[in-house]
Specification:
By secondary structure, the chain is an alpha+beta fold. The chain has helices at 2-67, 69-73, 88-91, 101-118, 146-163, 188-194, 206-210; strands at 78-80, 83-87, 123-130, 171-177, 196-203. The protein has 2 domains: 1-67; 73-210, OmpA-like domain (60s Ribosomal Protein L30, Chain: A, 2-Layer Sandwich), CATH 3.30.1330. The mean pLDDT is 83.
Length: 214
């Protein structure tokens, strides 16, 4: 009996250590499982958010295409990634910010479909002016540089759209000068493509959304 009791006394600590080890392994497994499940849930949530974002962008593109169906079909404007492009030569003479009759007529035709598109959406129309990279001629004292020329052209288009019916709280102007060209400025064809005005619906900022309309 004494030998048996001694054997039990020696074996008991071994079983206790084994039990502690198994408990630790089980705890580690549970932690890993929880971590994996959490990662899967986060990944699923991210994928769902990305899918919803893509669907919203696709619906936005289709709505914009529908609103501009007529001018797009006539080739008077382009639509690329939500940006509505108008050639600068249609709107303005070289180095001028005065709207040409054809340009004003085009803007008048765009005002109503753009207003309809913007209504009910938390978006505002950004009108952006761009130029080629050639410096303003020395004899042109009206504009200091391409930044000023692009700014004045954007303002001119913005005012024309407001006069044609777009609410003033739903449109604003931006100038980019010779930045962000869409073609090389190596020849006249490329420079002509870079002299342009773009319009793009963008989300309102919190400040714009809170600003009083009038």
């Amino acid at each position: 009996m004494e030998e048996t009791d001694a054997g039990l006394e020696h074996s008991a600590p071994a079983w206790a250590v084994f039990g502690d080890l198994m408990s630790g392994l089980l705890g580690a497994f549970v932690l890993i499982l929880v971590g994996v499940l959490g990662f899967q849930l986060e990944l699923a949530s991210s994928l769902e958010a990305e899918i919803n974002k893509r669907q919203a962008e696709e619906q936005r593109r289709i709505a914009l295409e529908d609103a501009l169906a007529a001018p797009l079909a006539a080739g008077r404007v382009t639509l690329d990634g939500g940006r509505i492009g108008i050639s600068g030569s249609v709107l303005f003479a070289l180095n001028s910010d005065a709207l040409q009759p054809e340009g004003r007529q085009l803007l008048n035709s765009l005002a109503q479909p753009l207003t309809t598109y913007l209504e009910g959406r938390d978006e505002i129309l950004m009108v952006s002016g761009f130029t080629d990279d050639r410096p303003i001629r020395d004899n042109n004292r009206q504009f200091a540089d391409n930044w000023e020329l692009s700014a004045q052209r954007a303002l001119t288009v913005t005012r024309a759209l407001i006069e044609a019916g777009i609410p003033s709280a739903s449109v604003f102007a931006a100038a980019f000068g010779a930045e962000q060209p869409v073609a090389p400025n190596a020849d006249e064809e490329g420079r002509a493509r870079n002299r342009r005005v773009e319009m793009a619906p963008v989300p309102r900022t919190a400040r714009q959304a809170a600003a009083p309309h009038g």
